[in-house]
Amino acid sequence: MSITVLVLALSAACCLGFGFVLQQNAAQRAPLADFLSPRLLLDLAKVPSWLGGIGLMAVGMALGAAALGQGEISLVEPLLATNLLFALALSRRRTRQPLGRQGWLGLALLAGGVAAFLVAAEPRGGHAVADPVRHWLIIGLMVGTALLLTGYARRARLGSAPVLLAAAAGLLYGVQDALTRESGQRFAAGGWPELLTGWQPYAVLVLGVTGLILVQSAFETAPLRKSLPALTAAQPLAGILCGVGFLGDRLHTDAAALAGQAAGLTAVVGGILLLGMHPALPQGSVAPARVALQTG
Asked: What single-letter DSSP state applies at residue 292?
């Protein structure tokens, strides 16, 4: 593993984790009438702390793009999943809640799971799949699942909606990461003309804005502990599927390696769930009668 890729990916995870905490603190005070509406972003843009969170997220995405430009998506995505550790660290500092047995176990599972997956899989580059049918089939599966989850969330509202929306956003962000890597490859091959004549950078923009609306709607309707774990778990799974499916990433596929990869990913998801339920993450509250955004 390249040290540069490791540093870039972990720095990206740090910025993303800190940014998510700031965003949720602002979004939980947004009007519920803005649920799943672009108006939500316009209202939140009036809140300085939310803008700070978006700034950190933008830096994190830029660092993540740099990591994807130098490493396989199947390598970078598990490292980006550690953003939950940084979110927990910031929240713990704010709440002064000790980690306790649950927190340490979740941390060990997440960190150990990422390490186990990378050791077992040994992600390495290969040739991208030229078959457009396979390309669009995988992207369509991810985007279609995200749309289905969003449809259920619209009906569920304050019930399971935050988890569904966060999972949908995670799937879109995983696809966005894959297309970000493709965009970088196009730019390296032919500069700006090659990049701007492809559909990938425009899809990255659309997926980013759509994912942002979904995430902020999830943050708006529930505490961070209900939404961030689903987001953190879905994104690397979608990214790895895209990497192996059409970007040409190669993983070891012997029985022992596959067992190690499955165990690693299971540990990652388990650690994410444990950390997501940790009391150090803001529990917040949602007031159904809320009609105006508090900017103070």
From this structure: S
